[in-house]
Amino acid sequence: MKVAIYANEGRRSTIISQRLKKKFADTHFIYDEKNPDIVVTVGGDGTLLSAFHKYAAIIDTVRFVSVHTGHLGFYTDWREDEIDDLVVSLQSDNGQAVNYPLLDIRVKYQGLAKAVNYLALNESTLKRNSATMVTDVYIGGEFFEKFRGDGLCISTPTGSTAYNKSLGGAVIHPNLKVLQVTEISSINNRIFRTLSSPMIIAPSDWITLIPDRQSDYILTVDQDTFHGKQIEQIRYKISKKSIHFAKYRHMQFWRRVQDAFIGNEFGN
Ligand code: NAP
Ligand code: MN
After folding, report:
1. The domain 2-97+246-261: what is its CATH number?
2. Name one GO molecular function term (predicted).
3. Nearest residue CA, atom 36 of ligand 1?
């Protein structure tokens, strides 16, 4: 089995990844940064997010497993003092995986013949800072509303605990293959109207945004930002691809949500 390590720049992460690398050498794993079967990330959720983008080209075949050097995250399973157990699990790996949905983004830029595709693990947003963002919103090809406000966020189930949650979106169990649309400060009054609540989009549907002709939109795809080009339209749907995690043990999703957002001190 070919493994790679992807660590963030923190001191703890550097130490842990050096230790892991040595263990891999001792246990005869092949270290292959370019074409790994398994990527072990060391850091936080943001680290896994970066690793996902680094390995996007081989996303169909690669599996991820994550060590957290801070708090327990949504993509991270193993504590830094458990790396011996992790190596043992990797040695007896039999290809076990859980797959979670990804967001497929297709952008038509003005003046470009070919559409540009992006893949997101958490979410994509379209925003405008200088003035109100005005965009037509279509669901499944049918006109739904004219949105006015700061922006819109389209998130995956695993991204629902990130930006989406800050925007008042629901936390979605990642076994559900749906997308969620949340508003960023919509304008609602007698003249302008939007739905004003988050929407959960069925797997067979897609969202199309046709923004007013302006050149100062900001498009985000997870931690990446794109701007400066005039956007004609964006189409969001659930990707045919998914992300694979090497799951050697189970942790209930709602347990993770509780740990991240509520804490246990008032429980029995
Ligand atoms: P960052 O600014 O370092 O991350 C923001 C926070 O989001 C970090 O605490 C990160 O956890 C956490 N996070 C990332 N993915 C998550 C997930 N799926 N569920 C719960 N928490 C998650 O930037 P980053 O680490 O590169 O992450 C980029 C993400 O930041 C974007 O995809 C977006 O979701 C999020 N973001 C949120 C807001 C907001 O809430 N207002 C605004 C912009 C971006 P770690 O500390 O473990 O990395
Ligand atoms: Mn981060």
Report:
1. 3.40.50.10330
2. ATP binding
3. 163
